[in-house]
Write a structure and sequence with these properties.
Blueprint lengths: L4 E3 L14 E3 L10 E10 L4 E7 L5 E8 L2 H13 L8 E9 L2 E9 L4 E2 H7 L7 H20 L2 E2 L8 E6 L2 E6 L6 E2 L30 H15 L14 H9 L14 H10 L10 H6 L1 H4 L11 H7 L1 H15 L33
Antiparallel strand pairs: 1-2, 3-4, 4-5, 5-7, 6-7, 8-10, 9-12, 10-11
Helix pairs in contact: 2-9, 3-4, 4-6
EC number: 2.7.11.1
Keywords: ATP-binding, Kinase, Nucleotide-binding, Phosphoprotein, Serine/threonine-protein kinase, Transferase
GO molecular function: ATP binding; protein serine/threonine kinase activity
Length: about 375
């Protein structure tokens, strides 16, 4: 058995957060002695399925991630545990070593994020337009999590809205980062090499073959911020594929725009921050510490409450976004953290109308 994982005290939600306090022993007794496992699937991570479970003592609902026991899975759990000292990272509650479906597994019990995914929450809101100030507040929460990981020399490598989930604590929504299936510890520049990524959010250096470092997370942050402020991504395939040669070329050259009408009223401060995060050369790109010092983040409560098109775009194209996300999940299932090669499937429908209105003045190269 590996070294015991570290756990801290109970947080304000009543969950045990993972940290450098007391010790959480990986448990060997059957998980069903402590939890009732539901057949309800909550989601699919990079390396395993997430289902609903309930604590038998208090009836509280949790999320259970089922991982085949391996070096990669243990690394995922270890890095997630280390990251869980941050209030904006999903907390790990228990870890069991059990045989599940005749396979030795790690069963990871985590806080259940009842508030849903980031984009879904924005899409479903019914209380007026989503504003630039709200986007700044969300970015601040995400950046707190990323800064925490980078201080621990952990690159998440899969920052995307689907991995940003809300929980409800005292009627307030708390945004938390999850899924450490691609995460890896890195102590120096250009120490990572595996081309693992979600296409929309991938940094140019990750496309290979050069080595890279945790600055790839900053590029992904820039893409997330871009989508938060308009509802569509800065880089996409003009022909509806998950990724294409033309899309890769635009990513490598940092070719994107701030088109009207969606960007007409967005502040220059926001655009400048995105430009700093989407610099193609990693050494010129903002670090997480540069981002955290940026006034658009630091003074987020003073960011103008400019109404954005984001909610409208996401509502109009919500089903299509789900189609894209589902395809990305299928594509990611072909990747693992240390694989030397990867396969990206194309979308079932080659003509992806989610992005069709962005094509009018562009041709695939």
């Amino acid at each position: 058995m590996e070294e015991p994982m570290m756990v801290d005290q109970v947080d304000e939600a009543g969950s045990r957060g993972v940290g450098v306090g007391s010790v959480l022993q990986t448990k060997a007794h059957p998980i069903v002695e402590d939890y009732t496992i539901s057949s309800t699937v909550l989601g699919l991570g990079i390396n395993g399925k997430v289902v609903e479970c309930f604590n038998k003592k208090d009836g509280r609902k949790y999320a259970l991630k089922v991982l085949k026991d391996s070096h990669k899975s243990r690394r995922e759990v270890d890095l997630h545990c280390r990251g869980s000292t941050c209030p904006h990272v999903v907390a790990i509650i228990d870890v069991f070593e059990n045989v599940y479906n005749n396979q030795k597994c790690l069963l990871v019990v985590m806080d259940c994020m009842e508030g849903g995914e980031l984009f879904q929450r924005i899409q479903d809101r019914a209380d007026g337009a989503f504003t630039e100030r709200e986007a700044a507040c969300i970015m601040k929460e995400i950046c707190v999590a990323v800064q925490h990981l980078h201080l621990l020399n952990i690159a998440h490598r899969d920052l995307k809205p689907e991995n940003l989930l809300y929980t409800i604590v005292s009627d307030d929504a708390s945004l938390r980062l999850t899924d450490f299936g691609f995460a890896k510890e890195t102590f120096s520049k250009e120490s990572l090499q595996t081309p693992c990524y979600t296409p929309y959010y991938v940094a140019p250096e990750v496309l290979g073959p050069e080595k890279y470092d945790k600055s790839c997370d900053i590029w992904s942050l820039g893409v997330i911020m871009y989508i938060l402020l308009c509802g569509f991504p800065p880089f996409y395939s003009n022909h509806g594929h998950a990724i294409s040669p033309g899309m890769k070329k635009r990513i490598r050259h940092g070719q994107y725009t701030f088109p009207n009408p969606e960007w007409a009223n967005v502040s220059q401060d926001a655009k400048d921050l995105i430009k700093g995060m989407l610099r193609t050369a990693p050494e010129e790109r903002f670090t997480i510490f540069d981002v955290m010092k940026n006034k658009w983040i630091v003074q987020y409560i003073d960011v103008p409450q400019t109404p954005l098109y984001t909610s409208k775009v996401l509502r109009e194209e919500g089903d299509l976004w789900q189609e894209v996300q589902d395809e990305m999940t299928r594509s990611l299932a072909t990747m693992r953290v240390d694989y030397d090669t990867l396969q990206i499937k194309t979308l079932d429908h080659a003509n992806n109308s989610l992005l069709s209105k962005r094509r009018s003045n562009k041709m695939e190269k």
